[in-house]
Amino acid sequence: MKFKQLNWWTLVTLGIFLLLNVLLSLVVFHTSRATFARSEIAALVLVLVPLVLFWGGLRVGLYLLALVQALYLAGYCSALYRLVQLPKLPLVLRGGALIAVLIALGALLYWFRLAWQARQALTKERVQRYLKFRK
After folding, report:
1. Does pTM surpass 0.70?
2. Which keywords, in A-to-Z order, does the entry hold (predicted)?
């Protein structure tokens, strides 16, 4: 059950990242469309490849997903800092973007909680399998 939730929340955090990337890159920070497109493609590849590995039963996929999510966490913290430091940004736009980033951080922290529980379940399963053959 935890693995289904983890898979679903992985896709949810990816969707949140893609939407937040649209908001922050194009609307707030005014980056070029080419840079935006590259970041969207990189985000898809960085999440979907480890997710496929995890679906294939390789535990390394879970660890790679955690690494990617940690990178997103650093990106969200950077976005919070940049939003606070922009002097010319209208207050309504700044407030909306700050709320969106905080929601994304909450979803990401929930993903880390689910990943930790999935890792504990995988470890417990591996120990039980080892103890069964040890007897």
Report:
1. yes
2. Membrane, Transmembrane, Transmembrane helix
Distance (Å, whole) CA 25 – CA 37: 10
Task: Report d(CA 65, CA 51) in Å as an integer.
Answer: 7
Picking from 83, 86, 68, the residue whose alpha carbon sits closest to that of residue 17 is 68
Classify burial at 49, counting beta carbons within 10 Å of its beta carbon; exposed 0-12, middle 13-18, buried 19 or more. Answer: middle
SS3 per residue for the chain: CHHHHHHHHHHHHHHHHHHHHHHHHHHHCCCCHHHHHHHHHHHHHHHHHHHHHHHCCCCHHHHHHHHHHHHHHHHHHHHHHHHHHCCCCCHHHHHHHHHHHHHHHHHHHHHHHHHHHHHHHHHHHHHHHHHHHHC
Quote the tokens at residue 91: 């207050």
Q: 87-135 pLDDT, tens per residue? A: 788 888 888 889 999 999 999 999 999 999 999 988 898 888 888 887 6
